[in-house]
Amino acid sequence: MLQQIRSQIAATGAVIALGFVPDAGLAQTTEERRERGAAVIHDLNNGMSQPNLEGMRQEFPFLAEATEAYALGDVWSRPGLDRRTRQLAAVAAFAAIGERTYMKVHAGYALNIGVTEEELKEVIYMVTVPAGFPKAIAASQVLAELFAERRRPAGRQPSEQRP
């Protein structure tokens, strides 16, 4: 019993120390949080909506709302990191866990806000240390694909390009 109480106290302390307890002064409606999340997407995606989020909204509206309000409106909007650092951290995290789709989305956002290709490559080099070469190689392939897409003239398919 004493061990359970100690565990609960430790868990509560960790939650408080890590800042997971919302500040009562910051409490806002879900709509306000969603609006903040929509503003984040607008900022990162050059004023466009996010296709994955919009697709999710059709079939999984609760998941889309939670993503927009919590992940974007609460977490992504926090003042502790600038948007470049957030994007680099997201790219590194998604690369390290092997989540290629979201890594590509966030690498695109990073490029949209001024992160360079060279900086993204450095992030992938760093991934070799905590996640290993296979994850970094997979991530490098995703970045190469993204870079090629962005260099391709608008409306042109890869097969239409000259070697």
UniProtKB/TrEMBL annotation:
Pfam families reported for this sequence: CMD
GO terms assigned for molecular function: peroxiredoxin activity
Domain Carboxymuconolactone decarboxylase-like: 63-145
Transmembrane segments: none
Entry-linked InterPro entries: 4CMD/NDH-1_regulator, AhpD-like, CMD-like
PANTHER family: 4-CARBOXYMUCONOLACTONE DECARBOXYLASE FAMILY PROTEIN, CARBOXYMUCONOLACTONE DECARBOXYLASE-LIKE DOMAIN-CONTAINING PROTEIN
Name the record gives this protein: Carboxymuconolactone decarboxylase family protein
Organism per entry: Rhizobium deserti
